[in-house]
Amino acid sequence: xxxxxxxxxxxxxxxxxxxxxxxxxxxxxxxxxxxxxxxxxxxxxxxxxxxxxxxxxxxxxxxxxxxxxxxxxxxxxxxxxxxxxxxxxxxxxxxxxxxxxxxxxxxxxxxxxxxxxxxxxxxxxxxxxxxxxxxxxxxxxxxxxxxxxxxxxxxxxxxxxxxxxxxxxxxxxxxxxxxxxxxxxxxxxxxxxxxxxxxxxxxxxxxxxxxxxxxxxxxxxxxxxxxxxxxxxxxxxxxxxxxxxxxxxxxxxxxxxxxxxxxxxxxxxxxxxxxxxxxxxxxxxxxxxxxxxxxxxxxxxxxxxxxxxxxxxxxxxxxxxxxxxxxxxxxxxxxxxxxxxxxxxxxxxxxxxxxxxxxxxxxxxxxxxxxxxxxxxxxxxxxxxxxxxxxxxxxxxxxxxxxxxxxxxxxxxxxxxxxxxxxxxxxxxxxxxxxxxxxxxx
Length: 442
Hints:
Blueprint: H1 17-27, E1 34-37, E2 45-46, E3 50-51, E4 61-62, E5 66-69, E6 83-91, E7 105-109, E8 121-124, E9 153-157, E10 167-168, E11 179-181, H2 189-197, E12 202-206, E13 210-216, E14 220-221, E15 232-233, H3 236-246, E16 250-257, H4 261-271, E17 277-281, H5 291-296, E18 309-314, E19 317-318, E20 322-328, E21 333-338, H6 342-361, E22 370-375, E23 381-382, E24 388-396, E25 399-402, H7 411-416, E26 419-423, E27 429-430, E28 435-440
Parallel strand pairs: 6-7, 13-16, 13-17, 14-15, 17-21, 19-24, 22-25
Antiparallel strand pairs: 1-12, 2-12, 3-11, 4-10, 5-7, 5-8, 6-9, 18-20, 20-21, 22-28, 23-27, 24-25, 24-26, 26-28
Helix pairs in contact: 1-6, 3-6
């Protein structure tokens, strides 16, 4: 761990939120780049600028099904006096042999096909009789496979067309030598499509981090199982795994581990093979059965793993006071141990784990966006002295409304929130209408 942040002492028993986050981000390093095939690179971050090797489109092509013609040949065309042109052939997308279009001639052309030599513009098929002799307003041409002779004969054109009408110019999308994508770009479907369009089959990226999430507690039961007295369903591992995937990670959920230090220790060690980051939830407080401290405090301190181990801290925040952080295993895999209360664990994830995931991805900006908002509440909000409080809220049009209370168990209220209302450490009361800082979650 970094030495930048102070350690817990008797005189100063609490870490601040900022100190803890600083220590986490100082320890977590971006993953090493890999060359990946395009679909495997979805969601990854580019580590190189991408320069276009060829213009897009690479040639002038038609944006419509119709006829490639010379402008002068259709200049006076009308329904009463159509231009009658000789059809000299077909131009389909992918065809290499292109007919030349001379005076009084036209070539049937399909969308995406290159503009043939001699042609200056494209007349949509709807402005013609489609070579069918049926008058204006046809909806299509004869299919080439059904009527090969449709590529010859005559076509009546009922409207004029300006030069290069319905023509996509070479390089009108992007020109050879232009920068297509900047290093640091997260590759989504449009970016993957662009890379394919310029001929890139692989790309150099930082891979999506692998995050393993496990919850602890003998009282936890998997959804769909029957609850017995004293048991509750394990929701934290689902919430945090979903949150990790939302942050950009490949996240694996491990079933709840019972309150047994050796079982937890063994589970963590087994999971390290597929983890760039580990997240636990529960068992970090001061109770007799809070076994995470017992299991993880020395994990990584063995002779073959010097400098490891997880340190447990109290943070000056609400919810989420108990936290653990360190590295475990031979590769010094970062591990964040979060509280077990649902709201506490989720708020802790947003403040500490999500930035760590984004740092592993190699992103420059690892934080959720923040803004200022007017507090919409009927009465003043209270906050404990010396703690930075994060209240759930709903944000809209510059106003934020609290959702639920301050309790760290209020899962239903959390599901209604899309923001966190931040009450600073030195503030014990916030009046209705006050200007507050808001962390936007969606």
